[in-house]
Amino acid sequence: MTGTRQLHFRVLGPLQVEDGSGPVAVGGHKPRTLLAALLVARGEVVTADRLLAAVWGDAPPDGAPTALRAYVSRLRGVLGDAAPLRHRPPGYFLSLADATLDADEFEQRVRTARAAAAAGDHQRALAELDAALALWRGDALAEFADEEFAAAEADRLAELRAGATADRAEALVELGRAAEAVPELEALVRRSPTWERPAVSLMRARYATGHQADALAAFHELRTRLDDELGVEPAAPARELYRRILVQDPALAAAPPPPGNLPRRASVFVGRDREVERVLAALRAGPLVTLTGVGGAGKSRLAVEVAARDRERFPDGVWLCELAALPDGSPVGDAVSAALGIRQRSGLSVEDSVLEYLRGRALLLLVDNCEHVLAHAAGLVAEVVRRCPRVVVLATSREPLAVEGEQVWPVPPLPLEDATALFVQRARAATPDFRLDAADADAVATICSRLDGLPLGIELAAARMRVMSPAEVAARLEDAPLLGGGRGPVARHQSLVAAIEWSYRLLPEAEQRLFRGMSVFAGGADLRAVHRVADPTASEDDVLDRLTRLVDRSMVVVRSGVHSRYRLLETLRAYGRAQAADAGESAELARRHVVYHVDYAERAGAGLQGADERAWAEEALGVYDDLRAAFTRAAADREWDLAVRLVAAVPELVHLRVGYEAYAWAESLLPVVDPGHPRYPAAVGAAARGAWNRGDFALARATALLAPAHPPPPGSARIAHPGDVLADVALYEGDVDAALRHYTAEAERARADGDRVRLVWTLYYVAVCEAVRRRPELGLAAARESLAVAEATANPTARSMARYALGLVLKKADPGRALALFDEAGELAASVHNFWWYGIALMEAAATRAVHGDPAEAARALVAVLDHWERVGDSTQQWLNLRYVARLLQRVGAADDAAALHACLVAAGKPSPLGPPDGNGSRGDPRAAEAGAVAHARAALGRVASSVVRA
Questions:
Q1: Are 614 and 832 in contact (CB under 8 A)?
Q2: Angstrom distance (rounded) from CA 114 to CA 108
Q3: Alpha-carbon gap, residue 355 to 948, rounded angstroms
Q4: Residue whose C-alpha is closest to residue 846's, from 801, 805, 804, 884
Q5: Would you call 818 exposed, middle or buried from its count of C-beta atoms within 10 A (0-12, 13-18, 19+)?
Q6: Is 16 helix (H, G, I), strand (E, B) or coil?
Q7: Do residues 945 and 860 touch, judged by C-beta distance below 8 A?
């Protein structure tokens, strides 16, 4: 290299030139165009005529050649020897031997990634592709894309970028992270609808996430687009993958995703290397480490980074439970169970259900933001430490949990070097061309010192780089109150409060009002909710503008997706609540929050029974924290009408997808809500259904009888009809005729009302009852009608139920067809996050394999069902599954195991396929009986699967 200066040319976005000290000013549009034309040539000679055409178009003025020479001379002066611009007849060339070009780096990294992928090193490929794609700052040669000299190169780079994006998605699939790949591939398909590669990759990614039906749909959509636009069929790779997906080729199975739910880190973790290593060492030394410190100290980010680096040590994964959305002082069991994806078990509290699930597992549980629910969090963590020897807990809190065995680790402020690096990172996020030069270094050091190295305060200050200089920010912080009064925890908290106060006071009044309003949300909100709740007097467009500015200033965090969601970090939320209280707005905000979410719950409840169930499910699951908060507020304020409307609306979301928490809401309302309220029967049905799922049939019957003659109004949740619960109790207790009479009458009522969703549900049960009564011809008629009506609704859960019913009727006569129907039912249910119906279909498919399939495969399938119902906490379905296990054990000749499991079933008073029902009921602890039966079944199935026992 000639000299020490190195130039970096950037064309993957707006044209930029940088050297070691920051941006290099090239000049106006014409010098920039000249440079771009030379860069496009990549060191080759560009004729003077081509340069004239690039700079002045097809008709350059008479003086253009002279002006071109002047621009070349000026550009030489700017670039110097670091990138010599030389004359070589018939034109000029730019030497890049000692400079770098981001497009070249991009292409080299992509080549390296593809070589790594070909060698099977998909982790290396992903890292290279992430680095390559991070070089892009917008469209290539963005300001020249319409110019003839740049168009071809811009298109070529855009194609390479799309290819690299597809490569990245394929690497994610290979690494077991197909769910992350799906949205990227869907976006690629939208941008390039006739490009087959992303469509083929999307098929594979959807299949890898368990969505066979969606994978096949991607092929059909591709075929339609190609036929409509090009008049051709998909190429052989797409057709072959379609065939393999249809037959469920085992070779298509992706690597299993790593267990856990840690969020993808949105930014590079800055500094704290020493702290990370020390916390990792503490975790290895004991069962509980609590990171303490003031709000904004970076406890959560440090905890997530530590957990991510320690993932390999825990075979059952790393699980993040965020408590920030919980009301002050509330129990934490439901939040922990939801994070783990488990549900309350029959006869157990939700906390004991969590402990029972964790007892035999080896995992890291990250419990974040404990301070406002300290007593409950400490109580549960203490029991985890005492009763779950292979679980390690990493907690964050502003104060210790005071639990035996706790290692308290105060999170220190960032040292100046790390604080400066964080400031620069966040400043560049706000203003991509921000560079830290010598003139600004002292001001940035002052900012970081004044904010005591607290990451949240530094991020708030860095966000102001879009409109202020470092010196201006430092000067304003000098005037802020409470700064510089010491370096203890109280002083650091005051520094953070002052930084938040400073950022808040810089906001216009309308943005302050919106910020205060957003503090009412427990888990965040989309634009519609922010508008309706936080600032309903403004237009939605104005709210979006203000929200955008709050995001730009790091006062609000945005999570992008189909529906972007906005939230306040907990420290900012607490400040916003205090400001709302001072402004006298809290009560009205809370009221609007409740009203909005009751209305939302009713819309979502209806949407979940329609054709757009998947979209509603994915959106509504993100709203659940605020639905809980809305119910809590409504009940506390004795707003019984709002509370019962919400309870009546949520079973389609909560029962089928979240857990049993909302059943407790329903139970709490029954003594206080007027039985004449139109939604009272739905609340009764929801409470009764909860008892039924827990296996408490006596309570389910007694609860349902509170409203036996008053069905909920049309459109109510499918599972919230009290009469249906009574019929289901009868069915599971052996009175099939009573259940059939009820559902036959209800089917006639649904036909008369034109309620297709209700008709699918009732015909499903008619088919089930006829199958149990061994009248397949009647069951077949009901199942076929159910399927026809379900297809007309286009509702995935209805379509899943109907396929299940048809499979049940056909199971004996055509087991192959039945098995295919059960698998389709499971795929449809899984596609809309309906894990309850997914479990039903999974169980019946396993039961069919137990009778007609390979015993080892059936055993593995039944173990998966045991795991599913154990996680879900549905004792009623678990006992049914245990009967299917007994049948398999009979089939393979495992007489001792079959007899032992039969004894468990009889001891629990559960009907067994090996003998008549025990009418005396359980003669012991039902929880212990179920746990013993499951443990025995799991061990026996393991012996079958490993071929120790053979038929």
A1: yes
A2: 10
A3: 33
A4: 884
A5: buried
A6: strand
A7: yes
**CATH homologous superfamily, domain 273-410:** P-loop containing nucleotide triphosphate hydrolases (3.40.50.300)
The pTM of the full predicted model, rounded to 2 decimals, is 0.63
Give CA–CA dist 874/658, Å, rounded: 13
Query: What is the number of alpha carbons within 13 Å of residue 728 lying toward its C-beta?
Result: 25
Q: Length of the chain in residues, anyone? A: 951
Cα→Cα distances 8→19, 24, 103, 434, 608, Å: 6, 10, 11, 15, 53
d(CA 515, CA 509): 10
Give dist(CA 823, CA 806) in Å, integer. 12
Do residues 856 and 894 lie in contact, with contact meaning Cβ atoms separated by under 8 Å?
no
Look at the block and give the residue holding tokens 């010196």: 471
Q: In terms of pLDDT, which residue wins out, 950 or 317?
A: 317
- Say yes or no to pLDDT of 533 above 90: yes
pLDDT band at 486 (very low <50, low <70, confident <90, very high): very low
Do 782 and 767 form a contact (C-beta atoms < 8 A)? yes
Whether 690 and 667 have beta carbons less than 8 Å apart is answered as yes
Reading the block at residue 724, the tokens are 């249906």
From residue 551, alpha-carbon distances to 21, 305, 547 in Å are: 29, 24, 6
Residue pair 412/306 in contact (Cβ under 8 Å)? The answer is no
Closest CA to 660 of 347, 350, 880: 350
Nearest to 877 by CA among 692, 723, 730: 692
Report residue 187's pLDDT band, with 50, 70 and 90 as the boundaries.
Answer: confident
CA gap 541, 440 in Å, rounded: 37
Contact status, residue 248 vs residue 826, Cβ threshold 8 Å: no
Is 1.10.10.10 the CATH number for 1-175? yes
Residue with tokens 């592709």: 129
Dihedral sign, CA of 430, 436, 440, 442? Answer: positive
Task: State the maximum Cα–Cα separation within the chain, in Å, rounded to a whole number.
Answer: 107
C-alpha 87/C-alpha 75 separation (Å) is 13
Question: How far apart (Å, rounded) are the C-alpha atoms in residues 927 and 647?
Answer: 28
SS3 at position 13: coil
What type of residue sits at position 453?
G
